[in-house]
Specification:
Layout: H1 7-21, E1 34-39, H2 50-68, E2 72-74, E3 78-79, H3 84-93, H4 97-113, E4 125-126, H5 130-145, E5 149-159, E6 164-166, E7 171-172, E8 177-178, E9 186-195, H6 201-204, H7 214-224, E10 226-236, E11 241-246, E12 257-260, H8 267-270, H9 273-288, H10 291-295, E13 303-312, E14 317-324, E15 335-338, H11 344-353, E16 361-362, E17 381-383, E18 393-394, H12 403-414, E19 418-424, E20 429-430, E21 432-433, E22 443-446, E23 450-453, H13 476-479, E24 485-487, E25 494-497, E26 501-502, H14 504-507, H15 511-514, H16 527-533, E27 536-542, H17 549-562, E28 572-578, E29 580-582, H18 599-606, H19 608-617, E30 624-626, H20 632-647, H21 658-680, H22 684-703, H23 710-723, H24 728-737, H25 754-757, E31 761-768, E32 771-779, H26 784-793, H27 795-801, E33 808-812, E34 816-820
Parallel strand pairs: 1-2, 1-27, 3-4, 12-14, 27-28, 29-30, 31-34
Antiparallel strand pairs: 5-6, 5-9, 7-8, 9-20, 10-11, 10-13, 10-19, 12-15, 13-14, 16-17, 17-18, 21-26, 22-23, 22-25, 24-25, 31-32, 33-34
Helix pairs in contact: 1-24, 3-4, 18-19, 19-20, 20-22, 21-22, 21-23, 22-23, 23-24
The structure holds one RNA strand of 87 nucleotides.
RNA sequence: GCCGAAGUGGCGGAACUGGCAGACGCGUGCGACUCAAACUCGCAAGCCCGUAAGGGUGUGAGGGUUCGAUUCCCUCCUUCGGCACCA
C-alpha cells in the first residue's frame, strides 16, 4: 500500500489542529525553566520575503529544539508597524497609512502561518496600535522626567527626500546618505528631541555576561568610539578660557598653534579688526559646504589666521589661533591644540601655512628636525623640549597605559591646568521625526509654561485620522486644523502639541516587553510575566542593526533599569545573526532587479517543510548566500525519502544480520549526538547534512531487512523527533503514522546512548613520512604497541620500508601510525 | 588610513582540541527502470600522468614551527563589511 507525501494536505491540517489546541501557547509555569526566544519583528511591507523565512525558520527550529529539551519556550511575533513606507504609499496611492499597514499585517500574518512556526499569536504586538504606543509615549515621558530626554537647537542631519531629521546612526557611509532612501543628507538648524545615549557610553562598551558575536561587539565599540586623554584649558590673550581635548597631553610642549572650528562661539571674540573681513568670509564658505565636502579626507586643508593668540598653559608661550574646517564643532570641544610634529593633519596644515613645527617626542636613534622633517612622527620615543619631562618614554599605548601621557596628566591635575578626560564618537540619539505615521511625542508647548508633558491620563495621544498630504512633504500633523491646538495642562492657557513623531526605533526598543502582556493596560507590561520570562535568552536577527536597533535596545534597557522599570544589566543574553539570502545572480534581491524569490510559490510547489529544510541547508546561516533553485530539489528528495522509508513497506527483504542492526544503531546515536551539538551552536546546515547521511544508512538497513526490528523502530522514532524542529508537519504526520500519541512537539529530545556511539572497529591510517600509504582495519581498544606492530606488518608498508629501519614511529591512539624514515 | 570578517572541487559547503582534505547536497557523466520522457534508483568523479595497478600534486601566495598544518606563527595578495580630518 502506497501513501503519497502530500504536503499540501498535511500541512494545513496540522496547522489548524495546533491552533485549535493552542499547542504553542506560552504560559507561566514556575515548575519549568523558561526560555524566551525572540527574532526581530518585521516591518509590514506587504509580502513575506524569502529573507524573512531565512531569519525566522531556523530561529523557530531552535526554539522548538529548546522546547523538546524541556524548556517552557515563548516565541512571540509582532509588527514594527510605524514608518515611512506606509506614508509614501499613502501619498502615491491615496490610501491611509493605517489601512495600508493593517492590510499588510493581515496578509503577512496569513503567509507566516503557512511556515508552521511555533509563534504564540495571542502575544502579538503591533507598534502602531494605540494600546501599544500609549506606552511608547509613557516611556518618552519617563525619560523626560528622569532627565534622559532633552530638547536642543542644533545643526542636525536632514534627509531632503524623506523630509525628516535623522539620528546620527541613520546617516550612512562616506557619502553621508539616508539609511532608508540613500539620499545624501544636509545640515539643518532645528530644535529637536534627544535621548541621552551618551550617558551610557561606557556601559554600552561593556559586554560582560552576554554571549554576543564578536563582530557586533566590535561594531558597537567602534561606533561608540571611546578615546582616552585629557582636557586642557588654554587661555586667550584676553584671558578667556579655551578648552581642548587631546589624546596626547605628552605633546603639549609641541603645540605651536591652536585651531578652532569655524563655527566655534569664541571666534567672534578673538578676531582682530584687521582679520575680521577675511575670517568672516571663510566662515561663510565653510558653512556653505555640505557635510560631505567638508568631511572629505583627501581634501586639502584650508584655514585662516584670526589675529588672536592663546597662551599655552604648560610653558606660557604665545601661539596663534587659527580657524580651519578640519576641526569639527561636533567632536570634543570644537577646538584643538595643534602639534604638527606629531599629528599628520596638523603637520600638513603647518607646512601649508608655514607654521612652526617643534619636535617633542624623539624616536630612538633618529635625528629629527622640525624645520626639515617630511612627515609627522606619531609613534613612540622619548619626550624632549618638554621641561622637567625630558627623557620620559612615550610608547604606542593609549591613555594611562602610556607612561608619558600618564605622567603629564598627573602633573596637569596637580597644577589645575587640565584633567584626565574621555571623549566619545557616539552622539545623543535624535528621536524627533517630522512625519505623520509614528507615535506622537507626548509634549505640549505653552507660551507661558514652556514644554509641558501630557498628563498620563490623557495618553495615548492618538494620531488624527482625517489627514492630508501636501506635495511639499510637510507633516500632516502640522497642517491639521485642530489636532495640535490644546489647553496647557499646567495653566490651561492656549498651547500646542508637539507635531513631531518619534523615530520608529523608539517603538522597537521596548517591544520584547510588550509581548509579555500585549493587552495589559496598567503599565507597559505585567510584572508577573516580566519576572518569569525576562531576560530574553536568545535573540536573532540581521547584523545591519548592530549600530542602530541593537544599541538603542541596550540603551533603553539600561535607562529603564535606572528608572526602576526593569531589572538586570542587559535585555538579551545571547545574540546570533543570520546572513542575507541573495538572488540567483548573487545580487541583493529587489523588485527592480527581478531576482526576488517568493516563499509562497515555493510553499505551493514543495510545502513548507521542504522550504524550511532547504533554508537551513543551503548556506551557513550566519553568512547567507545566493539562492539556488536547483538545490532545493536535494532537500525535497531527502524529505520524500524520509516519508518513503517510514510509510512504505518493502516486500521480500532478506533476513537481517546483527551487524546491520548494530551499525544502524551506532549511526543513529552518532547522528543524534552531532545534531544535538549543532542545534546548540546554530549550525543548521550540518544538522540537515547529518540527517541526510543517516537516512542514506537507514535506506541500506531497510533493504537489508531491518524493518520490523526493535532497532529500526528506535531509529524511526528518534529520527522523527530529530526532524520535528525543522519539518514540524511531516514529523507530526509520521509520528501519528507509527502509532505514537499526539503530539510529536510535546516529546522530549532523545537521549544519546554513549555506549552505542562507540566504534568497534577503526580504520588505522598508516603514513610513511607523513604520507598516507595504507589503511588497516583494527579492533577498537588496540594498544599503541599492537598498532605499531600491525602497521609494520603491512605489505604496502614493507615495500616502502625497503628493509630500512624506521627512525621513529608515531602512534596516535585509535587514529594513525606515522613511520618516519 | 583605521577596525573587523573571509579566501577549500564546476557550485553551496564539511573537517571535534594539529592526525584519512573535499562529508552532505547541487550540477555533471555513465547505467537501471520506461516505447519514450519525467520521477525514482545505482555507480563514478579534486587536478595532472597512466588502459590499469599506481604515482605525483592539492585548502589565496610565499616562508616558518612540527613526525604530521585547511587548522598554529610571520609576511603578502584578494574580496566583503564598518568607520573615517574623531584631535
Amino acid at each position: 500500500m502506497k501513501k503519497e507525501y502530500k504536503p499540501g494536505e498535511i500541512e494545513p491540517k496540522w496547522q489548524k489542529k495546533w491552533e485549535e489546541d493552542g499547542l504553542y501557547h506560552a504560559e507561566i509555569d514556575p515548575d519549568r525553566p523558561k526560555f524566551y526566544a525572540l527574532t526581530m519583528l518585521p516591518y509590514p511591507s506587504g509580502d513575506m520575503h524569502i529573507g524573512h523565512w531565512f531569519a525566522m525558520t531556523p530561529s523557530d527550529a531552535r526554539a522548538r529544539y529548546m522546547r523538546m529539551k524541556g524548556y517552557n519556550v515563548m516565541f512571540p511575533m509582532g509588527f514594527d508597524a510605524f514608518g515611512l513606507p506606509a506614508e509614501n504609499a499613502a501619498i502615491k496611492n491615496n490610501i491611509h497609512p493605517k489601512i495600508w499597514t493593517y492590510a499588510n499585517i493581515d496578509r503577512m500574518r496569513t503567509q507566516m502561518k503557512t511556515m508552521g512556526a511555533m509563534f504564540d499569536w495571542r502575544r502579538e504586538a503591533i507598534s502602531a496600535d494605540p494600546k501599544y504606543y500609549k506606552w511608547t509615549q509613557w516611556y518618552f515621558k519617563k525619560l523626560f522626567e528622569n532627565d534622559l530626554a532633552y530638547r536642543k537647537y542644533s545643526a542636525v542631519d536632514w534627509c531632503p527626500h524623506c523630509n525628516t531629521t535623522l539620528a546620527r546612526e541613520q546617516v550612512w557611509g562616506e557619502d553621508k546618505v539616508c539609511e532608508r532612501c540613500g539620499t545624501p543628507v544636509i545640515k539643518k538648524e532645528l530644535e529637536q528631541w534627544f535621548f541621552k545615549t551618551t550617558n551610557y557610553a561606557d556601559e554600552l562598551i561593556n559586554y560582560e555576561g552576554i554571549d554576543w558575536p564578536e563582530r557586533v561587539k566590535t561594531l558597537q565599540t567602534n561606533w561608540i568610539g571611546r578615546s582616552e586623554g585629557a582636557s586642557v584649558v588654554f587661555k586667550t590673550e584676553q584671558g578667556a578660557p579655551i578648552e581642548v581635548f587631546t589624546t596626547r597631553p605628552d605633546t603639549l610642549w609641541g603645540a605651536t598653534f591652536m585651531v578652532l572650528a569655524p563655527e566655534h562661539p569664541l571666534v567672534d571674540e578673538i578676531i582682530t579688526d584687521e582679520h575680521r573681513a577675511d575670517v568672516e568670509h571663510y566662515q561663510h564658505e565653510a558653512e556653505g559646504q555640505t557635510e560631505i565636502e567638508r568631511g572629505a579626507v583627501d581634501k586639502e586643508k584650508t584655514g585662516i589666521f584670526t589675529g588672536g593668540y592663546a597662551i599655552n598653559p604648560v610653558n606660557e608661550e604665545k601661539i596663534p589661533i587659527w580657524i580651519a574646517d578640519y576641526v569639527m564643532m561636533r567632536y570634543g570641544t570644537g577646538a584643538i591644540m595643534a602639534v604638527p610634529a606629531h599629528d599628520e593633519r596638523d603637520f600638513a596644515f603647518a607646512r601649508k601655512y608655514d607654521l612652526e613645527v617643534r619636535v617633542v617626542i624623539k624616536p630612538e636613534g633618529v635625528e629629527m628636525d622640525g624645520a626639515t622633517m617630511e612627515a609627522a612622527w606619531p609613534g613612540e620615543g622619548v619626550m624632549v623640549n618638554s621641561a622637567q619631562f625630558d627623557g620620559t618614554p612615550a610608547n604606542n599605548e593609549k591613555g594611562r597605559k602610556n607612561p608619558a601621557v600618564s605622567k603629564v596628566i598627573d602633573w596637569l591635575e596637580e597644577k589645575s591646568l587640565g584633567k584626565e578626560d574621555v571623549n566619545y564618537r557616539l552622539r545623543d540619539w535624535l528621536i524627533s521625526r517630522q512625519r505623520y505615521w509614528g507615535a506622537p511625542i507626548p509634549m505640549i508647548h505653552c507660551t507661558e509654561c514652556g514644554v509641558v508633558p501630557v498628563p498620563d491620563d490623557q495618553l495615548p495621544i492618538e494620531l488624527p485620522e482625517d489627514v492630508e498630504w501636501l506635495p511639499t512633504g510637510e507633516s500632516p500633523l502640522k497642517l491639521h486644523p485642530t489636532w495640535k491646538t490644546v489647553a496647557c495642562p499646567n495653566c490651561d492657557g492656549p498651547a500646542e502639541r508637539d507635531t513631531d513623531t518619534m523615530d520608529t526605533f523608539m517603538c522597537s526598543s521596548w517591544y520584547p516587553l510588550r509581548y509579555l502582556s500585549p493587552d495589559y493596560d496598567q503599565g507597559p507590561f505585567d510584572q508577573e510575566e516580566y519576572d518569569y520570562w525576562m531576560p530574553i535568552d536568545t535573540y536573532t536577527g540581521g547584523i545591519e542593526h548592530a549600530n542602530m536597533h541593537l544599541i538603542y535596545v541596550r540603551f533603553f534597557h539600561k535607562a529603564s533599569r535606572d528608572m526602576g522599570i526593569v531589572k538586570g544589566p542587559e535585555p538579551m543574553m545571547q545574540l546570533r545573526n543570520q546572513g542575507m539570502v541573495l538572488g540567483e545572480d548573487s545580487e541583493k534581491m529587489s523588485k527592480s532587479r527581478g531576482n526576488v524569490i517568493a516563499p509562497d510559490i515555493l510553499v505551493d510547489k514543495y510545502g513548507a517543510d521542504i522550504v524550511r529544510g532547504y533554508l537551513m541547508f543551503f548556506a551557513r546561516w550566519n553568512q547567507g548566500g545566493p539562492w539556488d533553485s536547483q538545490g532545493i530539489g536535494g532537500v525535497a528528495r531527502w524529505i520524500r525519502r524520509v516519508w518513503t522509508a517510514i510509510t512504505e513497506e518493502l516486500p521480500g527483504t532478506p533476513e537481517v544480520k546483527d551487524e546491520v542492526l548494530k551499525s544502524l544503531r551506532r549511526k543513529l546515536h552518532q547522528t543524534l549526538k552531532s545534531v544535538t551539538e549543532d542545534y546548540e551552536s546554530f549550525e543548521f546546515n550540518t544538522i540537515v547534512a547529518s540527517l541526510m547521511e543517516l537516512m542514506n544508512e537507514m535506506y541500506k538497513a531497510r533493504e537489508a531487512g531491518a524493518v520490523g526490528t526493535q532497532d529500526w523502530k528506535e531509529a524511526v522514532s528518534i529520527y522523527i523527533r530529530m526532524i520535528a524542529p525543522i519539518a514540524p508537519h511531516i514529523s507530526e504526520e509520521l509520528w501519528e503514522h507509527i502509532g505514537e500519541r499526539y503530539s510529536v512537539h510535546h516529546q522530549a529530545w532523545p537521549e544519546v546512548d554513549e555506549e552505542a556511539v562507540i566504534e568497534e572497529e577503526i580504520t588505522l591510517v598508516v603514513q610513511v613520512n607523513g604520507k598516507l600509504r595504507d589503511r588497516i582495519q583494527v579492533p577498537a581498544g588496540f594498544t599503541d604497541e599492537e598498532a605499531k606492530a600491525k602497521a609494520m606488518e603491512s605489505e604496502v608498508i614493507q615495500n616502502f620500508l625497503d628493509g630500512k629501519e624506521p627512525k621513529k614511529v608515531i602512534v596516535v591512539k585509535g587514529r594513525l601510525v606515522n613511520i618516519v624514515l
